[in-house]
Amino acid sequence: MNHSVTTEELRKNIALSDLPEEHLQWILDRSEYHEYEDGTLLFNTGDPAFYMWILLEGKLDFYMDINGTLVYYISFENDKTSGGITGLIPHSRMKNSPGKSISVGKLRVVGLHKDHFSELEQLNSNFVQKLIGYMTERAKAFATVQLQHEKVSALGKLSAGIAHELNNPASAINRIASELKTRLNSNYDLTSKLLADDFDSKHIESIRKLAKEKESMQKSALSALERMEKEDEIADWFSNNGFPENRKAVETLSEFGFSTFDLETIRRDVPNNSFTDLLGWLENIMISDRLITDLAEASSRISKLVGAIKSHVHMDRTNDVQRTNIHTDIENTLTLMGYKLRDKNISVRKTFCADLSTVDAYIGELNQVWTNLIDNAIDALEKNGELEIKTSCNAKDVTVRIIDNGVGIPKDIQSRIFDPFFTTKKVGQGTGIGLDIVKRIIDRHHGEIKVNSVPGRTEFVVCIPVSQVQQSA
Question: What is the pTM of this model?
Answer without folding.
Answer: 0.50
